[in-house]
Specification:
The chain is an all-alpha fold. It contains five helices and no strands. It has one domain. It is a multi-pass membrane protein.
């Protein structure tokens, strides 16, 4: 059946709020991964660390798009009138869905690479000698025993958030299409 404007408003508002929250969580997760691990790893400049860097930057951009999409959905739920809002939300939700999908795939590859090389690239900033001697030494900017598991856990959280963002961005997209009666 066709939704009346009132229920459209409610769904848009809920979707907007969820996107807003998911976007922020995604942003924080990306920032944590970067701050704790990747800023030491990315300067290594091999293919894997480059992939980590690109994926992480992409997830920050995707998070910003998701947040923008959420804000637009909330705005549109307040003011259902202007067509410009609907088109903006259409573009943002499409962009958000696609960028989150790219991140999801990028993260899967990152996790695959990391599991494949047993976190060697993540541990590259630590000289091999220092790992044997002490868990944390001057040569190692972080605790090497935890970096592997904590990076993978953060990526797992990111994957979950990207999946939720994709789901709700697509829902937003479909709602907007219905509002535009395309």
């Amino acid at each position: 059946g066709h939704l009346d404007p009132g229920s459209h408003r409610k769904v848009l508002m809920k979707t907007g709020l969820i996107l807003l929250i998911v976007g922020h969580l995604s942003f924080i997760t990306g920032a944590l991964v970067h701050g704790t691990v990747l800023r030491f790893v990315v300067p290594a400049r091999d293919a894997t660390s480059l992939h980590y860097g690109v994926t992480n930057s992409a997830s920050v951009i995707a998070a910003l798009l998701t947040i923008s999409c959420g804000i637009s959905a909330l705005l549109l739920s307040r003011y259902l009138g202007p067509a410009a809002f609907k088109w903006a939300l259409l573009a943002l939700s499409a962009g958000s869905s696609l960028s989150c999908l790219c991140c999801l795939l990028g993260l899967l590859v990152a996790v695959g690479l990391t599991l494949g090389n047993q976190g060697r690239v993540l541990l590259a900033p630590c000289s091999i000698g220092s790992i044997a001697l002490a868990p944390v030494s001057r040569e190692c900017p972080f605790d090497p025993t935890r970096v592997y598991s904590s990076t993978l856990s953060l990526w797992a959280i990111s994957l979950l958030l990207e999946a939720v963002a994709i789901f709700f961005s697509i829902r937003c997209l479909l709602l907007t299409l219905e509002l535009l009666r395309l």
